[in-house]
Amino acid sequence: MANPYICLNKEKSMKGLVTFCRWFVGVLFIFSGLIKLNDPLGFSYKLDEYFSAAVLGLEFLQPFALPLAIFLVIFEVILGIMLLIGFQRKFTIWSLLLMIGFFTFLTFYSAYFDKVTDCGCFGDAIPLVPWESFAKDVVLLVMILILFFNMDKWKSAFAKAKSSIIILVSTIICFIIAYYVLMHLPILDFRAYKVGTDIEVAMQEDPSQPDIYGYDWYYTVDGKEEIITTDGQVPEGRPGYDKVETRIIQEAALPKIHDFSIEKDGEDYTQEILDKEKVAFVMIYDVSKIEEGGMEKLASFTTRAQAAGYEVIGLSANGIEQLEPLMKSYDFSIPFYTTDGTQLKTAVRSTPAVMTIKKGVVTGKSHWNDFESLSL
């Protein structure tokens, strides 16, 4: 006969594990969702990358990247809340299981085939390389499976009506946040171009994280090849090697800002412009993504910025032949330089957008809805 005390202890241990898994998964889903809800446009760029021909080959989904991003991040937050309050257990746990199963496959695919360098799980707040993200998803998958097979051990914290109200109010708040950050800018800026950043300093490599090299020393022992790897020194007591080859074991960490340059007619003007006293960048990363309302405000902003002593220049990934008709249509004229489109859409989540600098330090950023209120 089974010892009742042992059975009771096992039951308590399992309930404790289930409770821990509920809180860990629920809080992590809410945190992850809110981080991405702070910047749904940035998450949509990541989905667009996943849908591209180079990764999943789902190009037909790329036009829906933004609405899908908004739905996913809000659903992620709501699922976390539903799990914590124990609402609609079967729907919640099946949704969590399907979602984490999909993302576990996605992160494994990205990591194994080296397709995407950052999964975007926590936006720009906590960058994760694909293998780190895959490991995180595996842990979550195990915890969700524990919850799945132990649904009888977690109950609803509130009556159905009260739980429904909590979910409804939470959903409305999430949509309000999404609308606000899309119409203005992310509430919290975790990106490399946040206000106060010295662009020139951020473009420099971190000397504490250089390339790490391995040296492969080749020997012939009893007619067979033997390889000994060191960090540079000849293996102790083994001077008679046949050859040595060098390889990178770990590449140096990229600077916080990389691939940023300001060019025109094949010449690089980056340093010259960063050295200027006051510059206002008008950023148009892609003419096909332009918001008409923002273009209508550029002429008045340009006049105001120039009156405040700023040199106003345009940055775009498009050629001048695409930009000149726009300037003519909206009655503003500024010199345009070429800059990598990824850097532009990373700097400010708006098209068009404005970023001001003083001696290379970012002093202000503005969504086109807020051009009039940008302090100069």
From TrEMBL:
InterPro entries: Methylamine_util_MauE. Residues 14-149 form the Methylamine utilisation protein MauE domain. It is a multi-pass membrane protein. The chain crosses the membrane at residues 20-37, 64-86, 93-113, 133-151, 163-182. It is found in: Membrane. Its main location: membrane. NCBIfam families: BT_3928_fam (NF045576). This is DoxX-like protein. It comes from Nonlabens xylanidelens.
